[in-house]
Amino acid sequence: MSNGKSQTVSAGDFTSALSLAANGVSVVTTDGDHGKAGLTVSSMCSVCADPALILACVNAENEFCSMADANGHFAVNLLTTSHTELSGVFAGLGTNPDVDRFNHGRWQTLKTGSPILTDALVSLDCNLVSATTHGTHRIYIGEVVALLSNESEALIYTNRNYAISQVIPN
Ligand SMILES: Cc1cc2nc3c(=O)[nH]c(=O)nc-3n(C[C@H](O)[C@H](O)[C@H](O)COP(=O)(O)O)c2cc1C
């Protein structure tokens, strides 16, 4: 509730504080008549189990947005600890940002046609339910229509680094 005083914090303070949160890393993808795109995100989370809804936040200027909006579907691929290089590729961090990102990793499709990473920890194939812009980002809500999972370990991003857990021997 507003008390008449400004309730906002600076973008710098906000970014520094939120960088301390630990999140799984995913690659969101879309492919269809209106184009193919993918990018690395740490903003995926579950919304609801029945119906099966997830959300992801994507910078509104990313080409993914116009394509996913028009294709009407997208997929979320949760990465494993073996995917740090792939995460960098889909974040455009390679030496050649023009490289076809989908040349990295093995891809298949399930129901919607959005690219599914064959060895992802979990892949969620989604029909687009809603996309709304808040500030610089669009919030994508998808209904999961198919999924895949593999036994592996989640890739976690925190404090601007990947946290690779160590197995403690017995
Ligand atoms: C670990 C990690 C998490 C990221 N999370 C997000 C995110 O949640 N939303 C987003 O829009 N960008 C996120 N990014 C940045 C995008 O991956 C990156 O800006 C984008 O791929 C580059 O833009 P381009 O696809 O137009 O080249 C993240 C990057 C990394 C490395």
Concise account of the structure shown:
With 170 residues, the protein is mainly beta. It has helices at residues 11-18, 63-71, 84-90; strands at residues 23-24, 26-32, 35-41, 45-48, 53-59, 73-78, 107-108, 116-117, 122-134, 137-149, 156-158, 161-163.
Helix content: 10-25%
User: Please, how many domains?
Assistant: 1
Helix/sheet category: mainly beta
Cα distance, first to last residue?
Answer: 52 Å
Give start-end ranges of low-pLDDT stretches.
none
- CATH level 3 topology: Pnp Oxidase, Chain A
Order of helices and strands: HEEEEEHEHEEEEEE
Task: Based on Cα principal axes, name the global outline.
Answer: globular
Describe this structure as you would to a colleague.
The structure is a single chain. By secondary structure, the chain is mainly beta. The chain has one domain: Roll (Pnp Oxidase, Chain A). It is built from three helices and twelve strands; from the N terminus they run H-E-E-E-E-E-H-E-H-E-E-E-E-E-E. The protein has a seven-stranded antiparallel sheet, sandwiched between helices. Strands 1-11-12 form a three-stranded antiparallel sheet, with no helix packed on it. The longest helix is centred in the middle third of the chain and has 9 residues. It is globular and about 45 Å long. The mean pLDDT is 94. The chain binds flavin mononucleotide (FMN).
